[in-house]
Automatic annotation (TrEMBL), chain A:
InterPro entries: ETF_a/b_N, ETF_b, ETF_beta_N, Rossmann-like_a/b/a_fold. The keyword Hydrolase does not apply. Belongs to the ETF beta-subunit/FixA family. Pfam families: ETF. Residues 23-214 form the Electron transfer flavoprotein alpha/beta-subunit N-terminal domain. It comes from Halobacteriovorax marinus. The keyword Transport applies. One of its GO terms (molecular function) is electron transfer activity. Coiled coil: none annotated. This is Electron transfer flavoprotein subunit beta. The lineage of its organism: Bacteria, Pseudomonadati, Bdellovibrionota, Bacteriovoracia, Bacteriovoracales. Keywords: Electron transport, Transport.
From TrEMBL, chain B:
One of its GO terms (molecular function) is electron transfer activity. This is Electron transfer flavoprotein subunit alpha. Transmembrane segments: none annotated. The lineage of its organism: Bacteria, Pseudomonadati, Bdellovibrionota, Bacteriovoracia, Bacteriovoracales. The electron transfer flavoprotein serves as a specific electron acceptor for other dehydrogenases. It transfers the electrons to the main respiratory chain via ETF-ubiquinone oxidoreductase (ETF dehydrogenase). It comes from the Bacteria. Residues 4-185 form the Electron transfer flavoprotein alpha/beta-subunit N-terminal domain. Its cofactor is FAD. GO terms for biological process: fatty acid beta-oxidation using acyl-CoA dehydrogenase. SUPFAM superfamilies: Adenine nucleotide alpha hydrolases-like, DHS-like NAD/FAD-binding domain. Keywords: Electron transport, FAD, Flavoprotein, Transport. Binds 1 FAD per dimer. It comes from Halobacteriovorax marinus.
Length: 262, 318
């Protein structure tokens, strides 16, 4: 199987986000970058699929800034065979990203039997790329996948929807599978894995190389700002059991009369 | 004035409230509604009351349950024939899966999960949170039409005024085309309650819940006030609650009217997922817990003592 994984490099969840000077994006100079957490599940699922299908290869693809390429090396250290980097700004929209991924996969010369992605990237939170890519490659896709079994190129997938309900899909390869937390437990890169990763092939392309132009932009952002801060609320000390009943009664009263929340 | 289609899902006789929220914001435009399947009479009345001119029921083979390809193919043809400038939907599980595929079929752009928008001069401009709400930005769509927009449930609020329109019911034949990824089975979730993303009131538990069985006291509170129960990442990672209940940057982003955080310290990734809640109550023994900086009403106390009193107090007024 030719297995592809699409990953993104995003600011660490603990990172403080600050808008840049002209409000067109965020300040990216002092950010700690990590692999998008949902993409770790995609890499792991790709490696599990490879283990179950001898002779398979796992190619990891990333579109984004080149301040560092640690995320691709991490995926290679976990066990992916080779990597493709499409060098681009970090604020591409979903359409451009999907088109660049399509171009990079086609340029690899291997047709994808399965493509794993995370269900969403936690930077722009758009949840568009897996489905857009599926449309562009004319492949079926299943998103928010929390269970994945494969036998003879047929995937049985559990997609999570509202209220924890699961839709069970069957789909034959080739397909795109967008992974959610719960699908597996991503492995850590081993020390030998990290050493090996340094020698694994990493191809680099420009956006133009993979057929993406400025005119492919569909979504324009401006006026990045921090959300308005709330005025400080009321705080009550209810550590002493004697006060608890009266304090709770007061808060419930405020919820009804002041906040009108109940 | 723009020609707009609002896609809605049919779950029961009622329309999802996010559909009505969207209709309220589209007053002054030429607005139709479409659903896959027969729109029930009760829903038709509601949709007409808030401005739907035509209400289309799309019918065809293999459309009885959702499939990304079947729904996208059916809507592609309908939207293409209708000459719409914009296509809206609530950001539900279904629309979040369907709309990107559909927008791609038109080579068109899509704004995901906006929390507010305007249609000045018939042109869409929206606001959406990025980085799980750590940042907000203005979003505009360029390129070929129609443009696609999903709207976060509970963000706009229900329209203040009704805006009655014709509400003509129209049947349309739809073609699902080739479906390669199809649902074979649906496994119902344990909860009969509203999903976290749609809930008006949420009661969440954190690491201080100590064990899964203790979520019982949150369930009791939730039952009294009609809330859905959530959990912090710490509680999920400790195995006290399933991931489907997780609120935060790697869980669900929620915006209820009332959010009650019990034994949650308020890590930045949790705050990101719930900070746009309209009213926040926090219960925590640590007076310096970050959750108190976001709380409208903070109670410094032991949740195991406070929550049962809270439940009893709510019983008196509900």
């Amino acid at each position: 199987m030719n297995i592809f994984v699409c990953i993104k490099q995003v600011p660490d969840t603990e990172t403080k986000i600050t808008p840049n000077g002209d409000g067109t994006y965020i300040e990216t100079t002092s950010i700690k970058w990590i692999m998008n957490p949902y993409d770790e599940f995609a890499v792991e699922q790709a490696l599990l699929t490879k283990q179950a299908n001898s002779g398979s290869t796992v190619t990891v693809v990333r579109v984004g800034g080149v301040k560092d390429t640690e995320t691709l090396r991490t995926a290679l250290a976990m066990g992916a065979d080779d990597a493709i980097l499409v060098e681009a700004d970090d604020n591409l929209d979903s359409f451009m990203t999907a088109k660049a991924l399509k171009g990079a996969i086609e340029k690899s010369g291997n047709s994808a039997d399965v493509i794993f992605t995370g269900k969403q990237a936690i930077d722009d939170d758009c949840l568009q790329v897996p489905q857009l890519l599926a449309g562009m490659l004319n492949l079926p896709s299943v998103s928010v996948v929390v269970g994945c079994e494969e036998a003879g190129g047929k995937f049985t997938l559990k997609r999570e929807i509202e209220g924890g309900t699961l839709e069970v899909y069957e789909v034959n390869s080739p397909a795109i599978i967008a992974c959610n937390k719960g699908i597996n437990t991503p492995r850590y890169a081993s020390l030998p894995g990290i050493m090996k990763a340094k020698r694994k092939p990493l191809a680099k392309h420009s956006l133009a190389d993979v057929g993406v132009a400025d005119s492919d932009r569909r979504v324009k952002y401006s006026n990045f700002q921090l959300p308005p801060e709330k005025p400080p609320g009321k705080k009550f000390d209810a550590m002493d059991e004697a006060n608890q009943a009266s304090i709770v009664a007061e808060v419930v009263g405020l919820l009804r009369t002041e906040a009108k929340a109940i | 004035m723009a020609k707009v289609l609002v896609f809605t899902e049919l779950t029961s006789d009622h329309v999802k409230s996010v559909t009505l929220e969207i209709l309220g914001k589209l007053t002054g435009n030429d607005v139709d509604v479409a659903a896959i399947g027969q729109v029930p009479a009760g829903a038709v009345a509601e949709l007409a009351k808030y401005g739907a001119a035509n209400i289309h029921s799309l019918k065809g083979d293999n459309l009885d349950k959702y499939s990304p390809e079947g729904y996208a193919n059916a809507l592609k043809e309908f939207i293409g024939n209708g000459g719409y400038d914009y296509v809206f939907a609530g950001a539900t599980s279904l629309a979040k899966d369907l709309f990107p595929r559909l927008s791609g079929m038109f080579d068109a752009g899509m704004a995901s999960e906006v929390t507010n928008f305007t249609m000045d001069g018939g042109t869409f401009a929206g606001t959406r949170p990025l980085f799980s709400g750590k940042c907000l930005a203005k979003v505009e769509i360029e390129g070929p039409k129609p443009h696609f927009v999903t709207v976060r449930p509970n963000a706009l609020g229900m329209p203040e005024n009704e805006n009655a329109a014709a509400g003509n019911v129209v049947d349309a034949a739809a073609n699902a085309g080739e479906i390669r990824a199809a649902i074979k089975e649906i496994i119902k979730g344990a909860s009969e309650k509203l999903d976290l993303t749609e809930a008006n009131i949420i009661v969440s538990g954190g690491r201080a819940m100590k064990e899964a069985a203790n979520f019982k006291i949150l369930d009791e509170l939730a039952d009294v006030i009609g809330a859905t129960v959530g959990a912090s990442r710490a509680a999920v990672d400790s195995g006290y609650a399933p991931h489907a209940m997780q609120v935060g940057q790697t869980g669900k982003t929620v915006a209820p009217t009332l959010y009650i955080a019990c034994g949650i310290s308020g890590a930045i990734q949790h705050l990101a997922g719930m900070r746009t809640s309209k009213c926040i109550v926090a219960i925590n023994t640590d007076p310096d817990a970050p959750i108190f900086t976001k709380a409208d009403y903070g109670i410094v106390g032991d949740l195991f003592q406070i929550v049962p009193i809270l439940t009893e107090e709510f019983k008196k007024i509900m």
